């Protein structure tokens, strides 16, 4: 009899907890400040926006590889994606939310098979997180606006920063710089 009472009490508490969770107001969206840029790389100034979170939409619109990389912290194989070695002028935006991330003027050939940059277009547009996966410590780079996994940053890059932002090609959307007329 004691056991039955215990189980009834436990199920009652469970039901109470689930109804309270349903009654809670929706969480306030996280606000972030990023620098906005035109497609030709001209700064528009800072903007404070709600962080973007559209997982169901991204699952429909991104390629399976881009979804795996950006939303599940995957990595594409080196040298496998067209554009890793692109060198024309332009702007790199987040494939998920269109946040400006890198100017092609800071891109260089790191011989790694991934696009590499020595700095982001604006420090506010990316965020760095300590990554301890696979038994090593690295610094993961994410889009500040939508939290997409972009790649990692290492301290073996060229001057002037000494940094190598090693990004996944499928996490970036390249916008060629319009030719001057």
Spell out the key features of this protein:
six-stranded antiparallel beta sheet, single chain, 181 residues, three-stranded antiparallel beta sheet, Metal Binding Protein, Guanine Nucleotide Exchange Factor, Chain A, alpha+beta
Count of helical regions: 3
Radius of gyration using CA atoms only? 21 Å
Distance between the termini: 87 Å
CATH superfamily: Peptide methionine sulfoxide reductase
Give the proportion of residues in helices: 10-25%
Main sheet overview: 6 strands, antiparallel
Low-confidence spans: 13-23
Structural domain count: 1
So what's the oligomer here? single chain
Total strands: the figure is 11
Overall description:
This protein has 181 residues and is of the alpha+beta class. It has one domain (27-176): Peptide methionine sulfoxide reductase (Metal Binding Protein, Guanine Nucleotide Exchange Factor, Chain A, Beta Complex). The protein is built from 3 helices and 11 strands. The strands form 3 sheets. A 6-stranded antiparallel sheet has the order 5-6-10-9-8-7. The chain has a 3-stranded antiparallel sheet with strand order 4-3-11, with no helix packed on it. The radius of gyration is 21 Å and the shape is globular. Mean pLDDT is 88; it is low at 13-23.
Short description:
The protein has 3 helices and 11 strands. By secondary structure, the chain is an alpha+beta fold.
């Amino acid at each position: 009899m004691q056991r039955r009472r215990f189980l009834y009490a436990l199920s009652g508490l469970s039901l109470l907890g689930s109804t309270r969770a349903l009654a809670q107001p929706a969480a306030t969206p996280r606000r972030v400040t990023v620098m906005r840029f035109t497609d030709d790389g001209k700064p528009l100034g800072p903007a404070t926006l709600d962080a973007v979170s559209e997982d169901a939409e991204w699952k429909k619109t991104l390629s399976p590889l881009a979804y795996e990389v950006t939303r599940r912290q995957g990595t594409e194989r080196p040298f496998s994606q067209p554009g890793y070695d692109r060198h024309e002028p332009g702007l790199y935006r987040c494939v998920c939310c269109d946040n400006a991330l890198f100017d092609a003027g800071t891109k260089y050939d790191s011989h790694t098979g991934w696009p590499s940059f020595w700095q982001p277009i604006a420090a506010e547009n990316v965020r760095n997180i300590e990554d301890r996966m696979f038994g090593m410590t690295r610094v993961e780079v994410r889009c500040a606006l939508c939290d997409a996994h972009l790649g990692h940053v290492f301290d073996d890059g060229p001057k002037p920063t000494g940094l190598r932002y090693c990004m996944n090609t499928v996490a970036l959307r390249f916008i060629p710089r319009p030719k001057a007329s």
